[in-house]
Amino acid sequence: MKTLVTIYQALADLDRLKVIAALILNNELLSCQIIEFLNQSEKDVSEHLLILINIGFITTRKDNDKLWYRLNKDSSDFAPIAEMVKNRMDNDPEFQKELYFIDEILARDIDN
User: Fold this and answer.
1) Are 102 and 22 in contact (CB under 8 A)?
2) Read out DSSP for 45-100?
């Protein structure tokens, strides 16, 4: 059972909030896209994603050899957190600038 402390500990990391924000904007992302977006090692990103999975905020979908990550909109804890992150996205120019990078990654992936 996840506790409130566990949820807030998981969300007390800017990189995990950026993952949530990127998924709010894009519905689902590949792990390689998240790795590039966060500019971290595969190991570090995997740890972030596992924490978000363990608190029930994201889920995965396997498509052949690709692993897609998406928000778990069925989680009862998710809606207020998503609203908080969305508010930050809408009102924080620095946060918006960081999120712009995910659009560049996705545009480049579409072109290839």
Assistant:
1) yes
2) HHHHHHHHHHTTSEEEEEETTEEEEEE-TT-TTHHHHHHHHHHHHHH-HHHHHHHH
pLDDT over 90 at 104, yes or no: no
Distances (CA, A) of 107 to 2, 38, 68, 101: 36, 16, 17, 10
For residue range 28-62, list pLDDT tens digits in order: 999 999 999 999 999 999 999 999 999 999 999 99
Query: To which residue do tokens 């992302």 refer?
Result: 29
* 8 A C-beta contact, residue 56 and residue 1: no
**In b/e form, how buried is each residue of 43-54, taking b as 16+ CB within 10 angstroms?**
eebeebbebbee
